[in-house]
Structure formats: structure tokens, C-alpha cells
């Protein structure tokens, strides 16, 4: 079930409201179009715009600013849609009176005087619903890409993702708990064995973390291998889709000196759109372009038919690579 249908089904279940989709096109700034997927609807005689968040950020101020801009540009009530929010983030949005939905978990619509949360779950269920950590997510990317293989020792996995053994062990323990893999002691070493690639792929496509923390435009030159292509630039690299916009690049949030050297600017003055990731985008990159598995994740909820066709092209190449091994 796609995100839109999941949202509509959840609203119908908890409110008994019928959702009617509207065909509407509104001109919005590029950063909003790339950061959100919009669904225009009518519910209980109210015109609403659901803004599904593509980018995962802990900065609630960013959503407050986006909410203000959208309210000014759209003649409808705006409701953000998230895959996940922690308690602090939920409370922050409520304090700011910003409407939102956490899929299958929470509904806050102050304009309709409605606030609904799910019933308490068992401790085991809560743990099963926890999101992957960046290290755990990265290990699965490496496994699907063929850089990490069944039977590898923990230290070999750590070397593949360029992380310390301790943090790698913690990530593998989480993958074991979430049933992506099993870590077993064989002789004197611990070795990891994953579920099938098709099963891991399907789960990761649904639940994988977005590595994107924030983005901005810069007029500064970025030389050499300091950044890798991402976004539409990466999508065009891996498919027949043409990228006619500003080049998008990804940089690790740990590259602080580089980030400080980049001057921010408006889009019409920019040389690059810069994505700041919670991990090193060079890891498992291909020819200085982010791994195609990240591209599939970035655009999975994009409604553009050309984008979806390009994603199918990329997905077929990945699965064909599995079959040839």
C-alpha cells in the first residue's frame, strides 16, 4: 500500500471521514516541491492539502517556516504527514498548533478540534516498530549492493562501512532484533547472515531512513571529490531521465570545514543544491554518484510518471545484478 492510500485509510478508520481527491496544480518554490509530496483533498467539506515530508529532519523550526509559507500560498488548510515522530517532536508541533499526521500512529488537526493517538503497545511491538539507525541502514545498503556478504565477520562489516567495531556491533544487534539478519558465533568469531535480498530490499524501501538532514543552495564552487551527486542529478545519471536543473550534491554533516566555506544563496543565483547527510554519502557511491538504492528511496513517493519510469529502470538494473551473481 502506498503512502497516500495508507494515509487515507488511516483517516477513514479513526474519523470515519470520506476523503475526496482534488485535481489541483499550484506553483510552489522548488525547495517545497522537492521536500514534500502534496495531495489536495476535501474532507468533511474542508479543503485540505496533505504535505508528505520526503526529508527527515529533527529541526521543527523548518516545518514551522514551511507551514507559514504554504498557508500563504495555498487557499487551504495544510497538514504535514510523517512516517515517524518522537514524543519531543510531536509536542513541539502541537505547541506551535501545526496540524500533522504520523502514519498509523497519530492525528492532530487543531482546526477540527481533533487529536487522536494510538493505544499503548507492548514493549516488544514498540521495539519492532523502531526505525533503523544510520549505521544499521548503511549495512543493509552495503548488503544489497554486494559490498557486504553473508558470512562476513563483524570487523569486516565495520571496515566496509568505515565505522568502529563497537558501533557496527550495535547496529548488527539491532538488525538481529528487527529480523533483517542474524549474528551468530562461529568458532571464535561472530558472523552475520542476512535475510534474502528481495525481502531486505522491500522492507528497506518502506522503512529505510532518509540520510538527508537539511539542504540549501550555494554559489560556491565545489571541487574534486568533496561531494557526490544526489537528487535529480543522481536520478538522471542512473536512468534516461534528463536533468535540466541545478546540480544536486550530497555532503556529510561531519565535513564542517567544507560546509563553512560554502556561501548560501537564493536558487536563481546558485551553482549547486547541497544536501547535508547524516552519513558519508561517498560510502557505497558509484563513480562519484550516491548509491542507486538511495535514489530509489529519495523519489519513491514522487508522482511524476517520468520519475517513476526512471525508478523502475534503476530497480530492474539492481535486481538483474543480483540474478547475475
In short, what is this structure?
The chain has 325 residues and is an alpha+beta fold. It is built from 13 helices and 14 strands.
Task: Outline the structure in words.
By secondary structure, the chain is an alpha+beta fold. Helix content is 41%, strand content 22%. It has 13 helices and 14 strands. The longest helix is centred in the C-terminal third of the chain and has 19 residues, at 305-323.
List the helices and strands and how they pair.
Elements: H1 3-15, E1 19-21, H2 30-35, E2 36-43, E3 46-53, H3 60-73, E4 77-82, H4 87-95, E5 100-102, E6 106-109, E7 114-117, H5 123-128, H6 134-145, E8 152-153, H7 154-161, H8 165-177, E9 181-186, E10 189-194, H9 197-207, E11 212-218, E12 228-229, H10 231-238, E13 247-252, H11 256-261, E14 272-277, H12 292-299, H13 305-323
Parallel strand pairs: 3-4, 4-5, 13-14
Antiparallel strand pairs: 1-2, 2-3, 5-6, 6-7, 8-10, 9-10, 11-14, 12-13
Helix pairs in contact: 6-8, 6-9, 7-8, 10-12, 12-13
Which structural traits does this protein have?
single chain; 325 residues; alpha+beta; 7-stranded mixed sheet; 4-stranded mixed sheet; 22% strand; globular
Amino acid at each position: 500500500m502506498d503512502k497516500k492510500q495508507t494515509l487515507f485509510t488511516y483517516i477513514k478508520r479513526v474519523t470515519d471521514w470520506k476523503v475526496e481527491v482534488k485535481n489541483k496544480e499550484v506553483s510552489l518554490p522548488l525547495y517545497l516541491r522537492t521536500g514534500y509530496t502534496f495531495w489536495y483533498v476535501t474532507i468533511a467539506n474542508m479543503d485540505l492539502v496533505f504535505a508528505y515530508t520526503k526529508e527527515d529532519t529533527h529541526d521543527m523550526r523548518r516545518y514551522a517556516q514551511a507551514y507559514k509559507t504554504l498557508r500563504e500560498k495555498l487557499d487551504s488548510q495544510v497538514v504535514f504527514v510523517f512516517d515517524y515522530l518522537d514524543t519531543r517532536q510531536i509536542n513541539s508541533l502541537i505547541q506551535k498548533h501545526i496540524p500533522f499526521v504520523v502514519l498509523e500512529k497519530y492525528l492532530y488537526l487543531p482546526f477540527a478540534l481533533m487529536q487522536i493517538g494510538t493505544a499503548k503497545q507492548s514493549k516488544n511491538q514498540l521495539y519492532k516498530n523502531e526505525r533503523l539507525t544510520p549505521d544499521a541502514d548503511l549495512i543493509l545498503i552495503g548488503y544489497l549492493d554486494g559490498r557486504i556478504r553473508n558470512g562476513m565477520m563483524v570487523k569486516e562489516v565495520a571496515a566496509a562501512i568505515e565505522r568502529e567495531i563497537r558501533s557496527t556491533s550495535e547496529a548488527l544487534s539491532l538488525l538481529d532484533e528487527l529480523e533483517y539478519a542474524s549474528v551468530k558465533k562461529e568458532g571464535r568469531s561472530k558472523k552475520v547472515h542476512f535475510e534474502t535480498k528481495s525481502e531486505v530490499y522491500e522492507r528497506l524501501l518502506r522503512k529505510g531512513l532518509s540520510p538527508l538532514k537539511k539542504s540549501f543552495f550555494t554559489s560556491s564552487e565545489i571541487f574534486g571529490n568533496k561531494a557526490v551527486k544526489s537528487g535529480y542529478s543522481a536520478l538522471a545519471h542512473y536512468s534516461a531521465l534528463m536533468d535540466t536543473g541545478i546540480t544536486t550534491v550530497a555532503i556529510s554533516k561531519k565535513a564542517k570545514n567544507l560546509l563553512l566555506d560554502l556561501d548560501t544563496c537564493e536558487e536563481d543565483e546558485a551553482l549547486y543544491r547541497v544536501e547535508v547527510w547524516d552519513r558519508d554519502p561517498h560510502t557505497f557511491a558509484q563513480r562519484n554518484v550516491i548509491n542507486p538504492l538511495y535514489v530509489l528511496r529519495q523519489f519513491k513517493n514522487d508522482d511524476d510518471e517520468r520519475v517513476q519510469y526512471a525508478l523502475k529502470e534503476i530497480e530492474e538494473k539492481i535486481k538483474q545484478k543480483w540474478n547475475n551473481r
